[in-house]
Structure formats: C-alpha cells, structure tokens
Amino acid sequence: MAKIRSLVCRECGSEYPAKAIHVCELCFGPLEVKYNYDEIKQTISRRSIEAGPKSMWRYMDLLPVEGPQVVGPHAGLTPMVRAKNLGAYLGLDELYIKNDTVNHPTLSFKDRVVAVALTRARELGFETVACASTGNLANSVAAHAAASSMQCYVFIPGDLEAAKVLGNLIYRPNVVEVEGNYDDVNRLCSEIAGEHGWAFVNINIRPYYAEGSKTLAYETVEQLGWRAPDQVVIPMASGSLLTKIWKGLNEMKHVGLIDSVATKINGAQAEGCSPISTAFKAGRDFFKPVKPKTIAKSLAIGNPADGYYALKTTAESGGAMDMVSDEEIVDGIKLLAQTEGIFAETAGGVTIGVLRKLVKQGVIKKHEVTVAYITGNGLKTQEAVLEAVGRPTRIHPSLVSFEKTFKVGKHGGDA
Ligand SMILES: *Cc1c(COP(=O)(O)O)cnc(C)c1O
Fold it and tell me: CA-CA distance, 35 to 49, in Å (whole number)?
C-alpha cells in the first residue's frame, strides 16, 4: 500500500484517485489528500526525521508525493528564533518567530507549497505549470519552474510591488499581468485551467499544494523540542495555511510523534481585506467577500477559498482572529525589525500587529509558548515602509563633520 490513500471531499467524503483534480463531482466540495496513517505510523519516528535531509523534505512521509526525486530540495527548515526582546516588549515569557523570510529560494513560505505542488505535478506528467498569485506564489513557481526546466505561466494582479514583479521576470516565465485584483486573476485562471492541460498549482493541483503548508507545523514541533506550542498567530490570505498548520499538528499526534495538541490557532488579516477575521469576530461561520484595499497585498484575497474552513479550524482549536490597520502593519514591521533584526514584508506586519492585539486583550497570556509565523521578506515590499524609516544622516567625508554631527566621546563610551 502507498502512503497516499486518495483525494477525499471535505464535504461529502467521496473518494477519488490522487490525480490532478480539486473539486468533488457529486457536491462540488473541495478535495484534500487522505493518507494511510496506519502505514506511515509504522516507519515514521523522531529519529528517522532527525536523520533526514536539512529541509522540509525530512517530513516526506507525511507529504503527498512519491519521491524520492523532488523539485525544490532546499525549501523549509527555516530558523525558529527565540524572540527574547520582542517577548519582553510584549510581556511574553516564551515567544518564537518562525522565520520564513529566509526560505529558499524566493524568501517566502510559498517555497514550501510550490516544492510539493511541482514535485507532484512532475510525478503526474505535467510539463507546464501555472498559478494565480498575490505575488509570492508567482515568484516561487517561476523560480522552481526555471530550476526544473518546466514551462511556466504566472498570472498576477495589476498593482503588485515592484520587487515582486521583477522577482518573476528575472526567471523568464510568461508573466501575465491581469488588469484587476487577485480575485479577478483567480476567476480567469479557473477558466483557463479548464481549457488547458496545465498544472495550476493553486487550482487543479491545490490539494497537493496546500499540504506543503503542513511542514511549518512539523518544523515548529520539532524545533520546540517535540512539543506543540500553546498559541500560534498565522496570517491569512485564502486561509489555507491556517487550516494546514492545524492539520499538521494533529497528524503528528496521530502518528505518535507527540502525545498531545492543545494549540490555539489564531488568524491575522489586514483591516483593508479581512473577510475571515470580520466573520469570526461577528460570530458567523461564513464570510462575506470584500474588495481588498490594503498595503498587505500578499494577503489581499477578497473571496478566500478556504475562509470557511479557517473559521471552523480557529473555532475548533479555541483560538481567535483579529485585524490591523495599514498603520499598525507598518508599526509591526518596524517593531520586529528593531527588536529581533528580522525584516518582514507586510504580511509579517499583520502577524505582529495582531499578536500585539491578542496579548493586549489577554487572549495570549504571559506564560504561554507562542509562535508567530513570519511568512515573507521585507525587501519585497519596500514601498510599504519607505516613508516610515527616515533617511540616513548625511555628513562630509571628514572627522570634523562626523564629530560635529555625532557627539560621541573619545576613547569609548558616548559623551
Ligand atoms: C500566501 C501567503 C500567506 C498565506 O496564504 P494562504 O492563502 O492563507 O495560505 C501568508 N503570507 C504570505 C507572505 C503569503 O505570500
């Protein structure tokens, strides 16, 4: 028996072979990967994982690929930073930053999902890969396609940050800039996916793609010394990442890697695009689509595909959701940079801003082991903070000019 059992409908439970399909023919519910856990349980152990590659592929047994050849062999296993300074500032004893700003090769958490999606796409015989993207996904698909010699089309909205546009063009895929927002791009791509035999990583390959997010949960547990955290804060675009961190934590318990999971799953959005957080705070189990207007463009999905499941997941775990303004996002980026030396993109500002709110509200408590997921790199969204960081202090190239400007004492110590 293989470790992948089938694709299963999240609504009616119908099962399908593990091919490039994503919706149930009977009820149109979304499909997700189902595993033969009994089989996985027999071979997986902490020791076998620790002896594995220094990448997310050490958890290959829990990923929907056949292997052993993979696309994106270096993705994942990013640092888990004990954030003492930020923790002290916020009043938390044990705060960690899971730092995917340095993921390989394109500096965002998307390198995880794309590595799984393209590995599976290649196993299913595809030669052309594509995606509908809010920015980081396109960068990662383009880079991985180049490295694995696959044909590539990336579809992006018309208002992306300069570094994210450039971060596509440099790999020379077909970059399609659609006049509209992400939701327009996604609608168009769903039509194209139906017409062309391509692997759209977040459409017909979505069940596999989404599983890549689980590696953030696995790494969290292993890097905390084989324990699940008490609280996590996760940025939400489609909501997929949030649901998969919960799935990953529970799988680890299920296959016997940890004894218990009591993690509260908290979701973070920007006020300018918060359909999921708004629904949660209103006590609704469904969201109303919105038209996004926020500097957090990587999270700007007005009609989130996994919004309903994200709401369910957070409720089931006993977690919370909240949202922050553009100003609070910028403050969050600066706070993380100035306390921990980590330069995050706008999504990271959303995470830190919401973390701050949840601590203030007493939702996250001082003694709780807390992990904040920082999913993208600040060098890709420079325009968001350009006005908020001031300018360098300019001097003449002379000692006099320096000492006049900076009144520093001689021979050590400030004056
Ligand atoms: C895509 C993305 C997310 C989360 O995406 P989901 O669609 O919710 O899985 C979070 N942060 C960044 C930087 C992203 O690019």
Answer: 18
Q: What is the DSSP string of 209-243?
A: HHHTTHHHHHHHHHHTTS---SEEEEE-SSSHHHH
- Angle, CA of 164, 169 and 174, to the nearest 5°: 115
Q: What is the dihedral of CA 166, 346, 246, 93, to 10 degrees?
A: 130
Cis amide linkage into residue 105, ω under 30° from 0: yes
Rounded to an integer, what distance in angstroms lies between the CA atom of residue 241 and that of residue 112?
11
Ligand 1: nearest atom to the Cα of 304: 7
Amino acid making up residue 388: A
136 lines ligand 1 (CB under 6 A): yes
415 pLDDT band, cuts 50/70/90, is very low
279 membership: H or E segment, kind and range: helix 275-281
Quick one: average pLDDT of 208-227?
A: 98
Supply the residue whose CA is at minimum distance from atom 12 of ligand 1.
375
3-class secondary structure, 15: strand
Indicate the SS3 state at residue 175. strand
Fill in the DSSP letter of residue 285.
S
- CB of 375 closer than 6 angstroms to any ligand 1 atom: yes
pLDDT tens digit sequence for 40-51: 999 999 999 999
